[in-house]
């Protein structure tokens, strides 16, 4: 039976970063992956959706007719779009495979990496089985990182048939642009997919928002900004609407929506896509064989990245990424994986500080977020002030003829106000978010922002004016 220093279960950003960091410490590592190398970080997730977003944004630029240019006969081929997206995913997967091969057991004298394809299940705290297509293998290790990620949540009473009623995992299997599409769920995935399909202008996009605004966890002004942009891009948003049922007919789906106001609406679409959150992949891991119970949300509780068993750390089994119940982001998964490997190697590490966590949301225009928003600060009863500045006043935005955007900086209510959070919407909003994350991390006051030179003309100049 093969024995390793570390077995990583799952090859997404959490698992792969844990493995790569563990390699630095000379460990003999095996990565076990049941589906796609790179997990949702690559396939049916972050990279594929962002590739499709970029293509759709290019198409939207090419389709403009208000800038003095006009393309002759613009058309888009869905098959080619999907091929390009899969190409991008494969490019990344082959980079990862090359890294694995570079450090294969046969070649590497110190640390080594191997990849086993199959589904892992704990037999006891030091043993797993890996079930592949044709065989089951038993492996042992001194340490484990569970990085099995998450999968799309099922909508109650709605069967996903993976052809017409689909989730984000099925997007790349579509054969053509749907003429009409309903997206159920107006969180990040729902709004990003609505942006992509409305950019291509081949699909009538309906977005079901069970609340009265999209992105329910964001501040009202930010949600309204996103809502308005989606509508301006042609998306039909059904606010305060609830899905009663979908009736399947050979050539269409009949959707019945019930609104909070009491009225109902029947609409016809070709594809319905469910995007109502993601649930952790714990159920097939054999957690009971290691004395671990998943939380009510199906996640694994951790302390210092160690899995908790009966309130105690099992200090040779770690968990990282979406499975851990923290914010489901690539960067968080990658960070947690790296720190788990450092714990395993007993290397002095630093605690993960989520206060300057940042994220980009790929809408039109993009939305960037770092730190807390007003809603969270009100919940935590933290006194704060808000500075707001419109891109309408920024020369670069004017030059781009693209002034739909803003920056909103949230600071503490102190004499020297510290930056607590920021939201920015507009072109290139992603470009300056990391500098704000640094300022939050360093506990800097707003004054620091004003001491910096800003290149002109740049969208970052928006800071100087807040
Ligand atoms: C459509 C979409 C778009 C996204 N866009 C972004 C984005 O733009 N930015 C961002 O920060 N985040 C984005 N995310 C979220 C991000 O992809 C996840 O937070 C991240 O991939 C989580 O990493 P992970 O390693 O924890 O899990 P995953 O990436 O889910 O990887 C887990 C892996 O474990 C494997 N696995 C599960 N169970 C087993 C088992 N028993 N045995 C063996 N293997 C197993 C799975 O097959 C999978 O490959 C997006 C997600 C989706 C779905
Ligand atoms: N750019 C990014 O950073 C990015 C992109 C995509 C996904 N992600 C990550 O993936 C996670 C999952 O994305 P998501 O959009 O699926 O989840 P989400 O939590 O962002 O949003 C889920 C949405 O579905 C709604 N909802 C829940 N149950 C519902 C029901 N029964 N009927 C109708 N609506 C319902 C919620 O009100 C919410 O609006 C995100 O939380 C995010 O962390 C990040």
Molecular structure report:
β13 (252-259) and β14 form a beta hairpin. The longest helix is centred in the first third of the chain and has 25 residues, at 78-102. The protein folds into 3 domains: 2-151 and 279-354, FAD/NAD(P)-binding domain, CATH 3.50.50; 165-276, 3-Layer(bba) Sandwich (FAD/NAD(P)-binding domain); 365-464, FAD/NAD-linked reductase, C-terminal dimerisation domain (Enolase-like, domain 1, 2-Layer Sandwich). The model has no long low-confidence stretch (mean pLDDT 94). It is α/β, with parallel strands linked by helices and 466 residues long. The chain is built from 11 helices and 24 strands. The protein has helices at 13-24, 39-42, 46-62, 78-102, 188-200, 220-232, 330-344, 374-379, 395-399, 433-441, 446-450, and strands spanning 2-9, 28-33, 112-117, 119-124, 127-131, 136-146, 150-152, 165-167, 180-184, 204-209, 236-239, 241-249, 252-259, 264-269, 271-274, 278-280, 302-303, 306-309, 312-319, 358-361, 367-371, 384-390, 406-412, 419-425. Strands 1, 2, 3, 4, 5, 6, 17, 18 and 19 form a 9-stranded mixed β-sheet that branches. The protein is globular, with a radius of gyration of 24 Å. Bound molecules: flavin-adenine dinucleotide (FAD) and nicotinamide-adenine-dinucleotide. Nicotinamide-adenine-dinucleotide (NAD) binds at residues 155, 184-190, 192, 208, 210-211, 216, 275-278, 327-329, 359-362.
